[in-house]
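@channel anyone free to eyeball this complex?
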Amino acid sequence: MASRYDRAITVFSPDGHLFQVEYAQEAVKKGSTAVGIRGTDIVVLGVEKKSVAKLQDERTVRKICALDDHVCMAFAGLTADARVVINRSRVECQSYKLTVEDPVTVEYITRFIATLKQKYTQSNGRRPFGISALIVGFDDDGIPRLYQTDPSGTYHAWKANAIGRSAKTVREFLEKNYTEDAIANDSEAIKLAIRALLEVVQSGGKNIELAIIRRNQPLKMFSAKEIELQVTEIEKEKEEAEKKKSKKTT
Amino acid sequence: MAATFFGEVVKAPCRAGTEDQEEEEEGRRETAEDREVRRQLARKREVRLFRRQTKTSLDVSLLEKYPCSKFIIAIGNNAVAFLSSFVMNSGVWEEVGCAKLWNEWCRTTDTTHLSPAEAFCVFYHLKSSPSVFGSCARKNMQVTLLTCRHVTDYKTSESISSLHSPFLKALKTQNFKEPPCCSLLEQPNIVHDLPAAVLSYCQVWKIPAVLYLCYTDVMKLDLITVEAFKPILSSRSLKGLVKNIPQSTEILKKLMTTNEIQSNIYT
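replying in thread with the prediction:
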């Protein structure tokens, strides 16, 4: 049945599916994992870096991009589609600032991206964007925000979420470990993001990229050394926790 | 003429009788030629068995010289990676022969000189225990098949987003008495291609056989998919064959990095 209703985006199947949109969600799962966490005074974006070919310039393979000084996003899925969406969002951020003389709110730019994606699910001869995005930032009111969009054009606010490959495993980890203590301060929130990624990233810290935004501060990308430091601390804490456990049992 | 959703123009079937007849005759003339071409292609189909090093051909009767108790087949790159890093890494395996085939759906155009680098199926046997291998001896033989399939082929009444892929499902013949290492494949799911052919053969000839099918969302070589086969290591057929699991995991990781195809489409 699916084969008759999945060629054209503008055709519903008899049981109400838009197969092209669902297939676009499969394309998202082919991208590497990205995780976003909303803390009390910080928002964190962590991504699994794909290993780069020897002759390739590492700086041109980026999953985390700034949309404005106070908003940034991470995506999973088709690289080219992401580039188009990011370019349009950046233009929209500046256009909004010039017109209204205020920076965009995170919710506004998320809604813009989601509307753009939805247009492509209802257009003749076009296919949906094959990306999901995690958009983070601080509004003027100082409240941290995390939103997620998907190829169907829906968007929701989250406390913590993951997209891309193994997103389900990471989300389950977050559901268990996202507590008030875990986001009590900035370093704890950063550690939670790294721990969530380490659940699914194969080769440890060197394949993780991390970005944070603190209130009234611009986007900060972590260097490889800083990430290694965090990973070493996490591993130490793990060992200590295991030692305590074994002491309790004996 | 009719316009479709994309605005392309499609020829609608004509209700005028005469036009139809002319078209049919034309069609018939072409079909005879097509049939001849197809017949010639079919004649070129071949299956060859030979030794890779010496390139000498191997008679099927030679393979019958190796009686075996366990026959393990891995189909697809993830299953092959699992077998080569976990099973073939422990003990010395000797290559006995390889099977190549060509039919009109193959992409290589050269029918006579198939290069050894494109082996479709390679046979190995365990030097230290020659009873592990084989092809034709039917008594006391147990067959284990490993393969992968995309999770979108898995039919279930649950929502697909609740599935924890990759996951393992088993399908066995009537004579296979051992309990499988994972849950059985439920209806209405079916098995396709080579694994189905092997299982049918085993069922007909009353050979105990089991297929371990891994449903995954990554069809290319992937560490998580290969590790999904790990529960099979506790089965009776593979127990004696796997010695060093941590070393095997290291070898698997190396295999991944060497085989990683750089694709920049998805980030």
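from a first look: The radius of gyration of chain A is 19 Å.
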